[in-house]
Structures are given as structure tokens and as C-alpha cells.
Design brief:
The chain has about 180 residues and is an alpha+beta fold. It has two domains: about 1-40 and about 115-165, no CATH class; about 45-115, Thrombin, subunit H, CATH 2.40.10. The chain is built from five helices and four strands; from the N terminus they run αααββββαα. It has helices spanning about 5-15, 20-35, 55-65, 115-125, 130-175, and strands at about 80-85, 90-95, 100-105, 110-115. A hairpin with a 5-residue loop joins strand 3 (about 100-105) and strand 4 (about 110-115). Helix 1 runs antiparallel to helix 5 (about 130-175) and helix 2 (about 20-35) packs antiparallel against helix 4. The longest helix is centred in the last third of the chain and has 43 residues, at about 130-175. The two termini are about 40 Å apart.
């Protein structure tokens, strides 16, 4: 079995086998590329002039609890607090994917919005489906994709190599006059 034949077969069946995971990775990757430009994916970051955080943890929790759409009853409902001193804000991101942006100066609520980027990221890396799917479907799909790149590169170069070989053989067969 020749290398070109084997490459074609591996390329064809590899592409078919990773179709759905690759579609998920590409579609979510495209959305993640524009997450800062599209408010539907990730809320835009507000700005204030203060660059040193002064609100206490109690003020932060009270501000998060005051937003009914976020559904915060206590710290167990908060996934993370992201402090952005250069922008003068901090973000309280809940486990229900709501984001509350607070001013660093006094903890005043600047914006409350639903944040889809974390969900899209979990789809992108396969963790949305669980660790088993992430490690046994998405990781092998990545390896197969790398193999597709290698076989595709070989199949792309093959005609060029074949033409070069034919030209070299023709030069050898032409008798010198």
C-alpha cells in the first residue's frame, strides 16, 4: 500500500470521524473570536477613574444580592470576582452566568448582564459535555485533526514532488547530441 493511498484513506475517514466535535470547536471558536465586540456573548466592560479597590467583601456581596436576575443568595452562588484596576471595575460572575460590574470606588452597580462567553468556552473545549467526553472525544479529535493537517500537507505537496520526479527522469532519458 503506497503512502499516497494510505494518506488519502486516513484523510477521508479522519475527516468523517471528527466532524461533529470539529464543528463544535470551530463554531464556538468563531464566537469566542468576537466576544469583546458582540454584547450578546460577553457584556462590554464599563470604565471608571478609580484604580484602587475600596469596597469591602460585604459591599460586593450586597451589590450582587441586590440584582434579582443574578439570583445571588450568598457566596456559594458566586463563581468568581474579577478585579480590573486599569478599568476601575470589578466583575462579580455568578454560577448562573450573570455578570454584575461594580465601581472600584464605592461598589456602585454599573451594569448587570447575562454572560454567554463562559458557556461558549466550555463548548469549545468540550468540558460542557463532561470530563469523559472532553478527554475521550475532543482530545482524540484534536489529535486526528493534527493528523489531517499532516496528511493534507503531504497530499498537497505530492503532485509537486511527482512533477519534479518526472522532469528529472525525462532529463535522464533525453540523449545528449
Amino acid at each position: 500500500m503506497s503512502l499516497s493511498y494510505l494518506s488519502r484513506r486516513l484523510h477521508r475517514w479522519g475527516a468523517i470521524s471528527i466532524g461533529l466535535p470539529l464543528l463544535c470547536v470551530v463554531a464556538s471558536g468563531l464566537l469566542l473570536q468576537v466576544k469583546k465586540q458582540v454584547e450578546w456573548i460577553q457584556p462590554p466592560e464599563q470604565r471608571t477613574a478609580v484604580t484602587t479597590p475600596t469596597p469591602s467583601w460585604d459591599v460586593i456581596l450586597a451589590a450582587a444580592k441586590a440584582m434579582p436576575e443574578a439570583g445571588v443568595r450568598g457566596w456559594e452562588d458566586i463563581d468568581r470576582v474579577d478585579v480590573r484596576p486599569e478599568k476601575g471595575i470589578l466583575k462579580v460572575i455568578t454560577t448562573s452566568r450573570w455578570e454584575t460590574q461594580l465601581a472600584l470606588a464605592d461598589g456602585a452597580v454599573l451594569q448587570v448582564a447575562y454572560r454567554r462567553s463562559d458557556l461558549i468556552e466550555s463548548l469549545h473545549d468540550g468540558s460542557f459535555f463532561g470530563d469523559t467526553v472532553k478527554l475521550w472525544i475532543f482530545l482524540p479529535s484534536g489529535l486526528v485533526l493534527f493528523g489531517l493537517w499532516l496528511t493534507g500537507l503531504y497530499l498537497w505537496v505530492l503532485p509537486w514532488l511527482t512533477r519534479r520526479k518526472r522532469a528529472r527522469l525525462q532529463r535522464r532519458q533525453v540523449p545528449a547530441v
